[in-house]
Backbone:
């Protein structure tokens, strides 16, 4: 960067700042007493070397002829990087470089000459070695060879955007991946390829979404976000440095979990009537929900595809099962991940018709609402100010539970947040007997993680004891009988309570025995021999 000053003594004063550190960088100031000419480049010659000192001419990359010219070019690229770095987020925005005034003044064409990127990465690594995010969108990349060394320069890079380039072959990713690079992006957690031909080409193939994800994860097994959508990373101990056999520390709340929370009896009655009715229609006749959603209702879906880590999940076949979530992921809306305004708008269903279309397109399901222990809810009232009238009282209801996809028989967990408003007399909702309408519906779908986080260890056991319906060990598999005998010896429970206790923990012996000390005092005396 050059600054013209009116008086030499001002320049001499500024030279006193030479060598100081500013914004994490060491300032280098020089005094030029002769005019500096910036010449347009000759695009027929490309002699930019891309080494540490760079190369170039007096303001032109393509006319580089001396080490002094190289210093000038490097200084100008350093100025470019300083305008595009965000030190707080450790991010560097290198998008649309061909439109940058500094690149234009250098006479460079990044879409045709990859050497400019090689040089920029070298200089950026010297200036900002701890970058975690780099945006390379809109640079006309057909190939990633110009940035093939990005893993060597930024070994801790976590987020990379290649959006809106011209990459048409999945194999172009190899040179920065574990397949074709000796220094791959081994810590990458987010990759954006939206806007490249590769996306359309892959997604148009049979089972395109799943195959596209598989091909990308084969190259970048650590990513948890692809094209702004969450995906389950394929973790490897040798990549992450973690011991795959080490179990996470158990998490305990400082208070006992309760099955449900309702602010008052009125809202409790409302929810106990609403939840079974809603899921009955959702599973059996979604079109019947049309009368319950308000005309201005909104619906959004978010998918959490990460693998659950609870003790239950580690031994549950339903939790460990590989499930294709593409039917949900394509409409997933996670505002902490989705940065595109257009994507945020397109994934929010607004209005009665849009909501009904969105929920109708989701896979058919079965929610076991007759098994109350598998569901939990929190409900409370919210007063919304209304101009010129008393505040409107709304109900916030958060439901936790599980469901089966009827076609695949995949079992998934969910959280669903409803904002409910009273139905007006004579309204469609009132005509079908619903005391409320749905103003907002937010659905989160997760891999199956059971219901033991909220269920009391006595759920089902107390019911069996009070009704006198005993469980019999006949009909149990041999390994289940062995489990029951071992648990009975360890706990002193009766046969009936032993079997029900194991059933309550999904016949997970290790989980059942580890939880027993916490619940022993709450068991009645008749539970023991």
Residues:
């Amino acid at each position: 960067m050059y600054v013209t000053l009116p008086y030499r003594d001002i320049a001499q004063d500024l030279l006193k700042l030479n060598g100081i550190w500013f914004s994490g960088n060491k300032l280098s100031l020089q005094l030029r007493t002769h005019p500096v000419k910036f010449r347009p480049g000759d695009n027929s010659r490309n002699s930019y070397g891309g080494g540490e000192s760079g190369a170039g001419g007096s303001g032109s990359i393509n006319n580089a002829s001396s080490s002094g010219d190289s210093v000038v070019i490097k200084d100008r690229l350093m100025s470019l990087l300083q305008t595009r770095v965000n030190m707080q987020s450790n991010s560097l925005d290198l998008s649309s470089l061909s439109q940058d005034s500094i690149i234009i003044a250098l006479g460079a064409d990044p879409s045709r000459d990859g050497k400019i990127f090689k040089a920029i990465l070298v200089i950026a690594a010297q200036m900002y070695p701890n970058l975690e995010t780099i945006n390379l969108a809109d640079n006309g990349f057909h190939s990633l060879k110009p940035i093939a060394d990005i893993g060597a320069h930024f070994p801790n890079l976590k987020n990379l955007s290649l959006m809106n380039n011209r990459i048409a072959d999945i194999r172009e990713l190899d040179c920065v991946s574990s397949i074709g690079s000796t220094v791959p992006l081994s810590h990458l957690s987010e990759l954006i390829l939206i806007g490249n031909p590769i996306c359309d080409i892959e997604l148009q193939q049979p089972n395109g979404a799943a195959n596209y994800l598989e091909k990308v994860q084969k190259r970048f097994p650590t990513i948890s976000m692809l094209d702004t959508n969450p995906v389950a990373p394929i973790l490897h101990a040798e990549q992450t440095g973690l011991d795959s056999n080490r179990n996470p520390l158990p998490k305990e709340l400082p208070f006992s979990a309760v099955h449900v929370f309702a602010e008052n009896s009125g809202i409790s009655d409302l929810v106990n009537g609403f939840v079974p009715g809603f899921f009955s229609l959702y599973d059996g006749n979604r079109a019947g929900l049309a009368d319950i959603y308000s005309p201005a209702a909104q619906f959004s879906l978010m998918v959490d595809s990460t693998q659950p880590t609870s003790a239950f999940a580690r031994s549950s076949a339903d939790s460990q099962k590989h499930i294709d979530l593409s039917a949900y992921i394509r409409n997933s809306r996670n505002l902490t991940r989705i940065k595109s305004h257009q994507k945020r708008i397109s994934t929010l269903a607004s209005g009665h018709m849009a909501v009904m279309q969105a929920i109708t397109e989701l896979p058919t399901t079965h929610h076991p609402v007759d098994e109350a222990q598998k569901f939990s809810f929190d409900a409370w009232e919210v007063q919304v100010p209304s101009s010129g009238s008393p505040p409107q009282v709304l109900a916030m209801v958060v439901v936790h539970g599980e469901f089966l996809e009827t076609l695949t028989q995949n079992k998934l967990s969910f959280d669903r947040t409803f904002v409910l408003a009273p139905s007006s007399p004579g309204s469609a909702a009132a005509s079908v007997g619903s005391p409320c309408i749905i103003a907002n519906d937010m659905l989160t779908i997760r891999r199956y993680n059971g219901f033991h986080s909220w269920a009391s260890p006595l759920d089902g056991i107390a019911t069996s004891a009070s009704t006198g319906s005993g469980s019999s060990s006949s009909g149990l598999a041999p390994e289940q009988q062995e489990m029951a005998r071992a648990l009975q010896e360890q706990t002193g429970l009766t046969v009936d309570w032993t079997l029900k206790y194991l059933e309550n923990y999904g016949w997970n012996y290790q989980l059942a025995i580890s939880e027993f000390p916490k619940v022993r005092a709450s068991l009645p005396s008749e539970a023991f021999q």
About this structure: The chain is about 30% helix and 20% strand. The radius of gyration is 31 Å. The longest strand covers residues 389-405. Residues 38-60, 236-251, 457-472 have pLDDT under 50 and may be disordered.
